[in-house]
Amino acid sequence: MEIRIRPYGESDLMAIQRIWNEVVEAGNAFPGDAPLSLQECRGYFASQSLTAVAELDGRVQGLYILHPNNIGRAGHIANASYAVSSEARGRGVGEALVRHSLSQLRAHGFAGLQFNAVVSTNKVAIALYEKLGFTKVGTIPGGFRLPDDSFTDIFIYFHPAPEPEKKK
Amino acid sequence: MEIRIRPYGESDLMAIQRIWNEVVEAGNAFPGDAPLSLQECRGYFASQSLTAVAELDGRVQGLYILHPNNIGRAGHIANASYAVSSEARGRGVGEALVRHSLSQLRAHGFAGLQFNAVVSTNKVAIALYEKLGFTKVGTIPGGFRLPDDSFTDIFIYFHPAPEPEKKK
């Protein structure tokens, strides 16, 4: 089993659309609740600071997007979203994506990475973020509407951009 | 001295532009760092859930904008920005704007109000938010670039939507 992370290309769009919309339709992780058409995907993923995909055994099974969390004077903090195909979960793809995104922050001009809406019921993501050194900034009570229309808290997380590795 | 808050109209646009851009140009409160043209103002303030102005002694001296802080499953939490003309500061306009925005949350479908980027050096705003019952959710270290290109923390604040007042 080998995981490879690389920038996405046009030929990845259908795989990306399938993986992204699977998370949208589950309704328990992304704020967005409308599946993206292929045309919307084309614009959305091209507009990011970086869209990267994870190949597992040669097949695209995950992706992340990286972009400024805000504009202007707060535009040096990034935000990211991650998606892993349900069939590939539990095999380290998510961790590889988050680690890769952290490694790309400085190259894209970012001083840190902020998550605005980590759903409190998303235990796997929370455990991963905490394992990788993200700090929980705080809680927005009832900030997320679950598929049954009940509300659950969202957590805000932050990680400073890792220092560049020293060249030997 | 009387403060009156009301929805903005087209005839307020030049006053709004002046007050808004004064805050943009000070560079110590809004993430946005580009002054808005009158045409940009026309689109921006019309696109809000609510744009309201404060008249002090019959003259527009402040405004606020209210809009969803996020999309879809997190779209029931609002975000707002406030601006008061420098010549009118210290006269209660800001407090009247924030109180009014809280009172408008439920009518616009919002369950709470979140501020994403309260600049740590903005002591007047912080004191006002805390007086009015906002809770500090947490801190994004170095999240704001000041005009001298140094970085300062930003705070995230939250206030649940007040219960509707009981009709007598």
| Contiguous helical run count of chain A | 4
The name of the CATH superfamily of the domain at 3-114 in chain A reads Gcn5-related N-acetyltransferase (GNAT)
* Share in helix of chain A: 25-40%
How much of the polypeptide of chain A forms β-strand, as a percent range?
35-45%
Shape of chain A: globular
- Give the low-pLDDT segments of chain A: none
Q: How is the quaternary structure best described? A: homodimer
Largest sheet of chain A: 7 strands, mixed
Q: Do you know the CATH architecture of the domain at 3-114 in chain A? A: 3-Layer(aba) Sandwich
Strand order of the largest sheet of chain A: 1-2-3-4-5-7-6
Radius of gyration of chain A: 16 Å
The average pLDDT score of chain A comes to 96
String of helices and strands of chain A: EHHEEEHEHEE
CATH class of the domain at 3-114 in chain A: Alpha Beta
Distance between the termini of chain A: 29 Å
What does this structure look like?
2 copies of one chain form a homodimer. Chain A has 4 helices and 7 strands. With 168 residues, chain A is an alpha+beta fold. Chain A has a domain at 3-114: Aminopeptidase (3-Layer(aba) Sandwich). The radius of gyration of chain A is 16 Å and the shape is globular. The relative contact order of chain A is 0.15. Chains A and B meet through strand 5, strand 6 and strand 7 of A and strand 5, strand 6 and strand 7 of B.
Task: Record keyword descriptors for this entry.
alpha+beta, 4 helices, homodimer, 7 strands, Aminopeptidase, 168 residues, 7-stranded mixed sheet
